[in-house]
């Protein structure tokens, strides 16, 4: 681990420490690390518009308890990491979505997922990590696919969660789920924005496992930590201007586990199955009843699946 970094205790949990890591490309990433420095490292890469706290503390602790060091961080443009000011033309996401669904190239986003994968590769270097294990969720899973293919020397094994390779003609996200994620709150005050966050949890999450009070507290905590809707849109544009990862998947040599929820309506299970089919010898695990989230009910099962995958 890079000894030059200054760590403080995480304000969110007693078993994690936080720091800022300058990547040297104009981006600083906000990072939290927990567990024994001698243990193998799992790097958690989160999805569209999601701060690192979307990796639940219980999930991180479950992996730490199974003998891993765990690192979570805010991607560029979200949470406490560097925000990107768009100097280019305004893009029409709806037009880009139509082209994206047909497998046509899009251009013009401030950055794409390859740039975000480069951020993660630089983070691994700056932290002085040897080969690391990766778990990427949703957009984070897309970033992780690029990372594993482009930087094979940095990644030991790959874990992917409710993600896609965005190959053409996959079933699109259900409109209600997609527009909840990129839609605007009814009002711009704190309560309006927190209620919008709660609504998103309800719409994309596991239908039978939402704890309303816990979700409300999480939404409030995320809002007070950072609220930057421009970053959510720019990350969405990054996906649309990256396109299909099918060719990338063919280059992945690492042992890969793909996990998907049977009740995911943002990225239906066929997306995860497409990823598993495209990556050589990848294993696919369908979790009955899980949506596009990581509720406490499924954490023991999920953390055990990934820990066993990395240990074998």
From TrEMBL:
Membrane-spanning residues: none
GO molecular function, one term: triacylglycerol lipase activity
Domain of life: Bacteria
Domain AB hydrolase-1: 40-294
GO biological process assignments: glycerolipid catabolic process
Matches recorded under Pfam families: Abhydrolase_1
SUPFAM superfamilies per UniProt: alpha/beta-Hydrolases (SSF53474)
PANTHER family: AB HYDROLASE-1 DOMAIN-CONTAINING PROTEIN, HYDROLASE, ALPHA/BETA FOLD FAMILY PROTEIN
Protein name: AB hydrolase-1 domain-containing protein
Organism for this UniProt entry: Acinetobacter gerneri DSM 14967 = CIP 107464 = MTCC 9824
């Amino acid at each position: 681990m890079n000894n030059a970094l200054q760590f403080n205790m995480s304000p969110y949990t007693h078993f994690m420490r936080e720091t800022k890591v300058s990547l040297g490309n104009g981006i600083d990433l906000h990072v939290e690390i927990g567990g024994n420095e001698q243990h193998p490292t799992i790097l958690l890469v989160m999805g569209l518009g999601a701060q690192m706290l979307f990796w639940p503390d219980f999930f991180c602790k479950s992996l730490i308890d199974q003998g891993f060091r765990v690192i979570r961080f805010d991607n560029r443009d979200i949470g406490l990491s560097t925000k990107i000011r768009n100097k280019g033309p305004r893009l029409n996401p709806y037009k880009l979505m139509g082209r994206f669904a047909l497998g046509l190239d899009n251009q013009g986003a401030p950055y794409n997922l390859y740039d975000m994968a480069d951020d993660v590769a630089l983070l691994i270097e700056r932290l002085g990590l040897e080969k690391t294990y990766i778990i990427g969720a949703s957009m984070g899973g897309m970033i992780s696919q690029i990372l594993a293919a482009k930087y094979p020397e940095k990644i030991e094994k790959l874990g992917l969660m409710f993600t896609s390779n965005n190959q053409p003609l996959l079933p699109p996200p259900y409109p209600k789920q997609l527009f909840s994620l990129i839609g605007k709150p009814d009002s711009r005050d704190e309560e309006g924005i927190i209620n919008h966050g709660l609504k998103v949890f309800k719409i994309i999450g596991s239908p039978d496992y939402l704890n309303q009070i816990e979700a409300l507290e999480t939404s409030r905590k995320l809002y007070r930590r950072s609220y930057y809707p421009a970053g959510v849109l720019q990350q969405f544009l990054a996906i649309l201007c990256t396109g299909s990862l099918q060719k990338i998947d063919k280059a992945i040599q690492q042992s890969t586990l793909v996990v998907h929820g049977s009740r995911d309506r943002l990225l239906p299970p066929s997306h995860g199955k497409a990823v598993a089919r495209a990556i050589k010898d990848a294993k696919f695990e369908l979790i009955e009843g899980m949506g596009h989230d990581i509720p406490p009910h499924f954490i023991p099962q999920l953390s055990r699946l990934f820990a066993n995958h990395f240990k074998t």
